[in-house]
Amino acid sequence: MIQNLLQTPIEYLKGVGPNRADVLKKELNIQSYRDLINFFPNRYIDKTGFYKINQLQRNSSEVQIVGKIVHMKMVEQKRGKRLVADFVDDTGKMELIWFRGHKWIRENLKLNVPYVIFGKTNWYNGVFSMPHPEMELVADYKKNLRTAMQPVYPSTEMLLKKGITNRVIMKLMQEVLQQTGLKFSESLSTQLIEELKLISKAEALFNIHFPKNQELLAKAQFRLKFEELFFIQLQLIRKNMLHKQKIKGFNFEQIGEYFNDFYQHNLPFDLTNAQKRVIKEIRGDMGSGAQMNRLLQGDVGSGKTIVALMSMLIALDNGFQACLMAPTEILSIQHYNGLKELCEEIDVSIYLLTGSTKTAKRREIHEKLEAGEIDILIGTHALLEDKVKFHNLGLAVIDEQHRFGVAQRAKLWRKNHIPPHVLVMTATPIPRTLAMSLYGDLDISVIDELPPGRKPVKTVHRFDSNRLKVFAFIRDEIKKGRQVYVVYPLIQESEKMDYKDLMDGYESITREFPDFQISIVHGQMKPADKDYEMDRFVRAETQIMVATTVIEVGVNVPNASVMIIESAERFGLSQLHQLRGRVGRGAEQSFCILMTGHKLSNDSKTRLETMTTTNDGFEIAEVDLKLRGPGDLMGTQQSGVLNLKIADIVKDNSILQSARYYATRILKEDPNLSEEKNLVVKNAYSRLVKNKTIWNYIS
Ligand code: ADP
Ligand code: MG
């Protein structure tokens, strides 16, 4: 019954009507009673305490005082009049001031009767005053159910323009809570409520809007945050479990000749323990009979490519094809060359398909792919096209997955009649918090160990004014046989200016180093020219590579040991870390030099400081998350996911952990939530799904 009441369209609420309903819908997406109740304040004005006039401070904060008006007078001033009242309590005297509404106030305010006043105080010439105070007779104040802490709701210009002030929202909230609030059905099981010492749902909703005191507000916030995160986790974990039961996957039973031959005779180095562990996890997944959906996280240079290759060889051993998709052409080509070299001694047919593959070649690839004559296909988004049909795709690997959207992952799923196993790899370490809330339906593997012998990259921050010293340093390193990257920002909105910066930089470097060969790569070059330049650098025919961030991901030139990042303050942290990952891949000591001007924002300073103090991608990701907020970090594609009503993915990390713990525990004991004690949770969950309160964001 309460559920029906909650569905009631908002225009039926007393005090709303069609016009206000319209504004509420448009501005706040409040359609029903339920939506209104779930519209939470973003702060509170604390009216729990009373001040005495002699306790007032000159900091113009909001205070509440009990006292009486003893006298009122009009004061003429240059522009208009003001009404001034002398207000006293047993400790002193202050003034209340009105610039408007004089008539009404004079007629309605009573002298010598106790009032509770609330507002901001000013101090001028030894007198405290309060302009346009909120006032209520003490007698009414005591009668009123309304609580001491006043909610402040998020607002918009349009709402205010249409007269829907905070006061109005408060009124509506009182109305809707009176009609529904006390009858609210519980959504968490008694067991959870007892174990976590939670307050009831009804109590929480009441106190989130009208908290009786700080303590109850804290309890209400905890309960609602927990609940929000709990149901998201419940959904993610359930999905993951269902997935494992229902989505049949190809069963790769055997490890055969491809894998063994490669492992025994062609592996160019010993695998790190982390690599071995991850390969084992992947093997386990692909041999389980269910479809694999695994996220492989590993910092730049941790050696994800070889893991991808060995996983693909398992697919081949079982008679399947595999593909590897990368976000850029350069990276695809590099993977193609790298894997071809690694597979030189084993009989694997590897092809490359990108946007610039010529039509004839493309046709050949399409045909061979369908005939099963291609074992491994590497490429860009071009792999996703409908024309690209596999004979029998068993494993799809996606490199640098943060560059791709969820929809693209889904497209790969449809490349076979049973979805292929999917391995997504990322070098942008996602903080655990975020990984849990975003990818709860993926299994996660982490390579937390770099190949032996790597020296951490030394990172310093230099001002543009020290450029000559930096040039001298570049010269020294090149003389030792090293190569150098110089990277310029490229941000779409100001592409022209960036292009100019890049070209100016290129010119000054050519002038400074007439004795060295210099490559240049940027987004506006033809792919063939890009490849040519890239190639010269890879083969060490050029010593300096001037580039935009097109080289950000994946490029591997172990002899390059210096990374200069120009206008470093314009890059995000994860981007800086990615770029730095281009060096430090060989045995030599590598360096990353962050160049900036002198004018730096606080955030920029934090970013630069973080980069110079740590090489740990996870630590960097945590700082990034705090600076930018989760939406930005993941790109717009996923930002909607984190549109939480009350919880904050960064600040409420510990609540998230606990929500995940309890959701896992409940589902382990009772996967279908069919036990009596979990009925409450089950019903609440179904309602959330039905009302689309929980987003269905992972396809
Ligand atoms: P990423 O994880 O950033 O994709 P790559 O797979 O490109 O890293 O590997 C970076 C470099 O480390 C490559 O040159 C690769 O050959 C090398 N490498 C990978 N694993 C090992 C290992 N176990 N021992 C030594 N070198 C390794
Ligand atoms: Mg890589």
Automatic annotation (TrEMBL):
Pfam entry (one): RecG_dom3_C
Domain of life: Bacteria
Substrates-to-products reaction catalysed: Couples ATP hydrolysis with the unwinding of duplex DNA by translocating in the 3'-5' direction; ATP + H2O = ADP + phosphate + H(+)
Domain Helicase ATP-binding as annotated: residue spans: 285-447
Known EC number: 5.6.2.4
PROSITE patterns, per the entry: HELICASE_ATP_BIND_1, HELICASE_CTER
Keywords: ATP-binding, DNA damage, DNA recombination, DNA repair, DNA-binding, Helicase, Hydrolase, Isomerase, Nucleotide-binding
GO terms for MF: 3'-5' DNA helicase activity; ATP binding; ATP hydrolysis activity; DNA binding
Keyword field contains DNA-binding: yes
GO BP field: DNA recombination; DNA repair
CDD domains: DEXHc_RecG, RecG_wedge_OBF
Residue stretches making up the Helicase C-terminal domain: 466-631
Family: Belongs to the helicase family. RecG subfamily.
General function of this protein: Plays a critical role in recombination and DNA repair. Helps process Holliday junction intermediates to mature products by catalyzing branch migration. Has replication fork regression activity, unwinds stalled or blocked replication forks to make a HJ that can be resolved. Has a DNA unwinding activity characteristic of a DNA helicase with 3'-5' polarity.
This protein's name: ATP-dependent DNA helicase RecG
Source species of the chain: Christiangramia gaetbulicola
Lineage: Bacteria, Pseudomonadati, Bacteroidota, Flavobacteriia, Flavobacteriales
